[in-house]
Design brief:
By secondary structure, the chain is α/β, with parallel strands linked by helices. It is built from 8 helices and 7 strands. Helix content is about 45%, strand content about 15%.
């Protein structure tokens, strides 16, 4: 049974790895034995994560600094990972943006950036790494959905559209690729303290309100993502694909 959760030696590409959920998932995969390819815009932040990984994890990692809004770097990410660590076995699509704009403040630029980074890039990056996964007859794709994949929040129209889309893209990935041994699932986090949610956590009233909305009675702590990350990245989840798994303390249960 323990071997089902073994990810030692697996190669994982993690976008958004410089902070927040992407960083937590990257560090977790690394600490459990994966070789992690850290992707993000801020090279200094990626270097901090890499330093931590290289001190504590059994395998070394590597970084790739670039702006995912430039789609031309997608092939470069895959090629660099293959050259440095090997062909990816696991893809974590955690890079994202949320402008929290009122509907009348949304413009074409912020709408396009939200959809491109949150929805389009996860598909096109997966499309690039999947052929090698098909050769191996094994792969794991983990997307990041949201409470807004299911319901609307104030000032979240564009973000909600992208996260509703990522739920359906995840199902579509599963339908297309699971016959080759590649599973595709998404984690839908509740409220966790990250850069994207700083406006919420900096407001004591909103923070308390969201905690009370959960069945457990508290907001998420970053360590709450560790178990689901290893599970979805390992053979333990072999027969689970196309699913959106809420890690929200029961927020959507109430």
């Amino acid at each position: 049974m323990k071997e089902q959760f073994n990810i030692k030696g697996r190669v994982a590409v993690c976008t958004g790895a410089s902070s927040g959920i992407g960083r937590q998932m990257a560090e977790t995969l690394s600490f459990y034995g994966a070789k992690v390819f850290l992707v993000g815009r801020r090279e200094n932040k990626l270097s901090e994560v890499l330093t931590k990984i290289n001190k504590l994890a059994p395998y070394k990692g590597a970084i790739f600094s670039g702006d995912l809004l430039n789609r031309n770097i997608i092939p470069e990410i895959n090629e660099a990972c293959c050259a440095i660590l090997g062909a990816p076995d696991i893809l974590v699509n955690a890079a994202g943006v949320n402008f929290r704009e009122q509907w009348n403040d949304i413009n074409i630029e912020t709408w396009d950036e939200t959809i491109r980074l949150n929805l389009s890039i996860p598909f096109f990056l997966a499309q690039k790494v999947v052929p090698k996964m098909i050769e191996k007859k094994w792969g794991r794709i983990i997307n990041i959905a949201s409470l807004q994949s299911y319901r609307a929040f104030p000032n979240g129209l564009a973000y909600g559209a992208s996260k509703g889309g990522i739920a359906q893209v995840t199902r579509g990935m599963a339908e297309a690729w699971s016959c080759y041994g590649i599973t595709a699932n998404a984690i839908a986090p509740g409220f966790f303290p990250t850069e994207l949610t700083a406006p919420i956590f900096n407001d004591d009233e909103k923070k308390l309100h969201n905690a009370k909305m959960t069945a457990i009675g508290r907001n998420g702590e970053m360590r709450d993502l560790d178990g689901i990350t290893v599970f979805l990245a390992s053979e333990a989840s072999d027969y689970i694909t196309g699913q959106i798994i809420n890690v929200d303390g029961g927020y959507t249960a109430k």
